Structure formats: C-alpha cells, structure tokens
Amino acid sequence: MVHLGLLCPAETGHLNTMLPLGQEMQRRGYRVTFFGIVDASAKVLAAGLEFRSFGEVEFPAGASERLFAELGKLSGLAALNYTLDWIKKSAAVFLKDGPTVLKDAQIEALLVDQISPEGGTVADLLDIPFVTICSALPFNQEPTIPPLFTTWSYNPAWWAILRNQIVYRVVSPFGKSMQTLRFSYRKLWKLAPEITSDSQLAILTQQPAEFEYPRQTLPEYFHFTGPYHNRTSRKPVDFPWEQLTDKPLIYASMGTLQNQLTDVFRAIATACVDLDAQLVISLGGASLESLPVLPGNPIVVSYAPQLALLERASVAITHAGMNTALECLTYGVPMVAIPITNDQPGVASRIAWIGAGEIVPLQQLTAARLQTALKLVLTQPSYRQNAIALKESIAKSGGVSRAADIIEQAISTRKPVVRT
Which CATH superfamily is 241-395 part of? Predict the structure, then answer.
C-alpha cells in the first residue's frame, strides 16, 4: 500500500479540488494523508482521509477563520496582496516543518497544489515523486495569455502581447521572493537548482481544455482532466427546499473568502427584484446576522448545497472562483460573473470568451448594470447552449478517474506522463 500525501491551502476552493482526488486514490487502495494547518482537519476527516498537522505555533486553531474574516472585507489588489502574504508565510512554515512531518509519516509520494510549490522542494529532499495539481488557473506564463488577475481576453496581437509582458514584469518580484525562499532551502539541503517549481512527471488542471485560452508552450506532461468535485467530500448542508417555487432559480454565491462585501449582496438582491425569478444567496459561511435585510425577500443561507441547487438553476451569479465556475458548467448553467480578486478575473474572462456568461466588474457594479446582464443571460439561448457545450466537454474529459490514472502512472514509473 503506497502512502500518498496531499498538500494544499486550508481553504474551501482548494480542499474541494484536492480531497476528491485523495478519496479516489484511497478507493484504489492507497493510504492517503492530508498535511495542513489544524483548521483543515474537520473537512479532511469528514472526507474520510487521514490528517497530519504542521505549523501549530504559527497557525493555531482558529487562525484561518481570522485570516478569512479579514480577507472577506477586501477586494482587488489589497485582497491579492493579503493572499500572497499568507501563501508566503505558509510556504516558510512548511519548508521548516514539512521534512520531519512527511518523513515521520513515511510518505512515499505527494500531490502538491500549484499554489504550494514548497511541497515539491520537500519532496525532492525526501526523494519521493510528486504531481502538481492546479486548483486555480494555471500559473504557467505565456506571451499571448493575459495575467490571470485581469479580465483581458485572449488576443495574439503584438500590442496585447506587449501589454501582457509588461504586467508580468511588474508582478515578478513576488514570484522571485517565493523562489528565493525555496532556493535558500535547496542550498541548505544541497539539492540541485530548481528547474521548475512544478512536477516534471505530471501537472493536472481540473479545467477541460475547452475552458482555456489557446496554449502554445505547456509541457508535454500537462493534462486538462476536467473537474474533480463531488458531494461525498463535503459535509451535508440543511436547506429550506420547501421555500423554492416554480419560478426560474437564480443562484448567487460570492465564494467562501470575499463573503463580507455587503454592498455586492445588496446589488444582487436589488437587481433581481423586478425579474420573474427566485433568488437564493449563499454567504459562503458568513453569518446571516452580518447581512442587512435585503430587498425582494430572497432565500439567504450561510452555506448552500451548491451542487444540488445548480441542478435546478437557470443562471448563477458568481465571483468566478474556479470551482464554482466549473460546477456551473458541469450542470450547463450560464453565469454572470462579478470577479473580486486573485484569479477570479481570469476565470471570468474565460466564461465570457466561451460565451457562457457575462462579466460585471466589481468597480462598475450597480443593480441596474447587473440586472441588464441577468436579463441578457436569461433570455438569449446562446448562453445556455454554450454552457451545455462545456457540460458535454466536461462529461468526456475523464475528471477524477482520469486524473488518478495519470497520478498512478507518474508515481509508479517516476517518468513524465505525456499527454496523447
């Protein structure tokens, strides 16, 4: 029995990607242990996987709740910088504690979130294979691919390429600071210089290929597998199903991080008042008491059974987190995206690019503008048709089963798994 380790941030969007992979590998006979801060333990154990903690001093119980509460009030560059600081602190802690924790657990292979590349450095130290998992948009830069924190669409024109390159240079100091941190440990541990922070055996993204801009320079072992989400990796959630009517359902969720922007929820509720539809708002874990009374009497819940609601939804209003976007497309649900920060603008731009939704930038959000976008998506058949086309692509992509096949081949052979 191979003992497989999982490493990703203790945040719902990343856990909802990594835990189903762990469950599938466990079903195939692997022993699977998740490594994270103590706040991740409840969700990991609920998914039926083993859990080992690190960084108890730096990230004691309740640390992520306090961090997310602060992050929930931010947007744009402020939220991005806050997130990047958290990522760098987490990386430093794992580089310090990870070797001992993984060695004590006798881990033989590792799945590493692309946002946690320190895992690959520790895997190199322990001489165990690792596979990179992209929970968010892939970080792999190309001249024609816009930076993931922008809503710029794909454009191969020379001026667009120049614009992309200028922005990449502006943001490069953070990547270099993370790289310097890993390099210092690699030098201390007498490891070879890092060629790439990603695995050289396999890189997996839960995107279907049709939900990505035309890529030219991805490694031959980069795989578009389709999403991994499932209901068994999530805790059951109560919901007042009896309150639903026969009207078209509009499901709104701004995710689990940027969930305290009350003006956004007020704009959403106001935009839906005059529509012949029923609105359900999920606060992504935020307290109901934190939200004022909203116009139109929508159903508002702290958490929602998102997959079950998407089965019935006519349109989704979303922050364009990768998981929510892919879950909408899995059920053929078109979207109106209000991206807040991180890679959400890039996901939103892809939603618009494939014709499965509209974007309303946060800086331009008004109830009137949002209502116009909703009416467009609700009344023009092309949006749902394009979403259904992606639904069909996702159904053929293989998802968690195909991803597990690639992982097994990579860790058993220790050779790159070339896509066909």
Answer: Glycogen Phosphorylase B; (3.40.50.2000)
